[in-house]
Design a protein that fits this description.
Its EC number is 4.2.3.4. The protein is α/β, with parallel strands linked by helices and about 350 residues long. It has helices at about 15-25, 40-45, 45-50, 75-85, 100-110, 125-130, 170-185, 190-195, 205-225, 240-250, 260-275, 280-295, 305-310, 345-354; strands at about 5, 10-15, 35-40, 60-65, 95-100, 120-125, 135-140, 145-150, 155-160, 325-330, 335-340. Helix 6 packs parallel to helix 9 (about 205-225) and helix 10 crosses helix 13 (about 305-310). The N and C termini lie far apart (about 40 Å).
Length: about 350
């Protein structure tokens, strides 16, 4: 797959990843290499990854517990201390080997340690490959509130090795699929149409879909790195999706949802809102609802659940002057940003979802 040029770094795929990485490690004088993993990537991905490295620089492994609940400042403090204890300095480099939690928190840790050291993202989940590792967003949650603390700074590179997907459970693959569906809905109807017959696709087809998804996100980010305009399009499904994810994370009576599952629900809800605001046709809405529902199980929400989810919307990082802002569909393949929506319409969206 062809290398993609981001603003200040490259996104490389499969065999090209390790040739690039080994050359980088050879021509740069890094004092130490730190590989950040969680307990899952330590077991399933780290051995193969280390076998690809050709360097005399000392390598240290830092392992975190797996899960969104550990993407917080407390974990950062532990890793910062580990970096100091293991001799990390401003000439060190961090290799983030993992899913969205690892690349999000690893980038933030690198950006803030010693006022910033180099880092590379090596996503090991589908969600990480097509979304979390792409675009230069690094950060952590504040309690259950998603991505409240962070910084936008691009990595040295992003290395996408799709062989890591072989170790993923189906639920994690679906989580990444949600972001790929989103990229088609907001930017490319032809790309969206490819997901109508996903069961007939082979590995080569999947690699091509991943490459196209990365290209879509990178094109949008390259126009608006700091999210002052069109990058807000990438938040389609996330305004309600993040609130749903946070609510389920803190409510023991609700299933803990993977990010992609929550976003999938958010996309159905926000597609309904788009329809009700006259931006999306009935036919397009029902097509979106049907296809997403094919891949993601329905979750039941009571009236009290919905009230609490709406209360969480105010913490969405896109909000300005206390108003909740949505990115809504203006037909499949086109987006309209900075749209407002009242609570009654949100309730109607949940009723239709049920």
């Amino acid at each position: 797959m062809q290398t993609i040029q981001a603003i200040n770094h490259k996104i490389l795929f499969n065999d090209n990843c390790y040739a690039f990485l080994n050359e980088l490690l050879q021509v740069n004088t890094f004092s130490k290499i730190f590989v950040l993993v969680d307990e899952n990537t330590s077991q399933y991905c780290l051995p193969n990854f280390l076998a690809q490295l050709a360097t005399d620089v000392e390598i240290e492994i830092i392992e975190l517990e797996a899960g969104e609940q550990f993407k917080n400042i407390e974990t950062c403090a532990q890793v910062w201390q580990a970096l100091i204890d293991l001799g990390g300095d401003r000439k060190s480099i961090v290799l983030n080997l993992g899913g969205g939690v690892i690349t999000d928190i690893g980038g933030f840790i690198a950006c803030t340690f010693k006022r910033g050291i180099e880092f590379i993202n090596i996503p090991t989940t589908l969600l990480g490959m097509v979304d979390a590792a792409i675009g230069g967003k690094n950060g952590v949650d504040l309690g259950v509130l998603k991505n409240q603390i962070g910084i936008i700074r691009e990595p040295k590179a992003v290395l996408v090795d799709t062989s890591f997907l072989d170790s993923l459970p189906a639920s994690e693959m679906r989580s990444g699929l949600a972001e790929m569906l989103k990229h088609g809905l907001i930017s490319d109807k032809t790309y969206w149409d490819k997901f109508k017959s996903l069961s007939s696709l082979n590995t080569e087809d999947l690699n091509e879909l991943i490459h196209q998804s990365v290209q879509i996100k990178n094109t949008i980010v390259s126009e608006d790195l700091t999210e002052n305009g069109i990058r807000k399009a990438l938040n389609f499904g996330h305004t309600l999706g993040h609130a749903i994810e946070s609510y389920c994370l803190e409510n023991p009576e609700k299933p803990t949802l993977l990010h992609g599952h929550a976003v999938a629900i958010g996309m159905i809800l926000e597609s309904y809102i788009s329809k009700e605001k006259g931006l999306l046709s009935n036919e397009e809405y029902y097509e979106i609802k049907y296809i997403i529902s094919e891949y993601f199980d329905k979750v039941d929400f009571t009236k009290e659940d919905i009230n609490q989810i709406i209360d969480l919307l105010i913490f969405d990082k896109k909000n300005e002057f206390g108003k909740v802002q949505f990115a809504l569909l203006e037909g499949i393949g086109k987006i309209k940003i900075n749209e407002y929506c009242d609570n009654d319409l949100i309730f109607k969206a949940f009723e239709d979802y049920k």
